Amino acid sequence: MANKPLLVAVDVQQLYRDFAPWALDGVETVATTIAGLADALGCPLLCTRTVLPSAHGVRTGPWRAYEERWQALAARAAAEPEVLDPLPVVQQRCQTVFDKHTYSAFEDAAFEAHVRDFGPAPLLVAGVETDICVLATVFGACDRNLPVWLVTDAVTGPDARAQGGVLAMLGRMPEQVRLVNAREAVLALAPERS
Description:
43% of the residues lie in helices and 18% in strands. By secondary structure, the chain is α/β, with parallel strands linked by helices. It has one domain (6-189): Rossmann fold. Helix 2 runs parallel beside helix 9 (182-189). The longest helix is centred in the N-terminal third of the chain and has 15 residues, at 27-41. It is globular, with a radius of gyration of 16 Å. The two termini are 15 Å apart.
């Protein structure tokens, strides 16, 4: 294989482990799976992080209502900014962290440029929340004609039914999104051992 894959950890942050109501069951397992995948593949790991409203100012329209809804959580995060950081097991392996102000990582020009510069190898996507930011990032990659692999055992969200629905929907798009678990990704993409 000419190029190593590129692994993206979407919003695997302390925020989703520690801060109700955003805290999610399974985020530590997702982080451990992502770290193991990065180690096994020896590939670059890019991280995104949700940046809460107080960090980027008030917008208009529906985003303004979103910011108002989460204003108290943003104030808590402003007092403890480390909660916006990736979980330590992921951060230790992360090549670059990109701040995200919308659902899709591809709305950040620097993230998109970094992915484009990387080349044609598969883009492995993992993280939280499956039915919002992970899905938006997968669609962003599809819209840019990038080969996407969603790592199904390295995603989580607050609603198992919604997650199952997202995975079923993406399963209908095999030409654009390949659904794999971490073991399958390693078997398909790991560099050959001598």
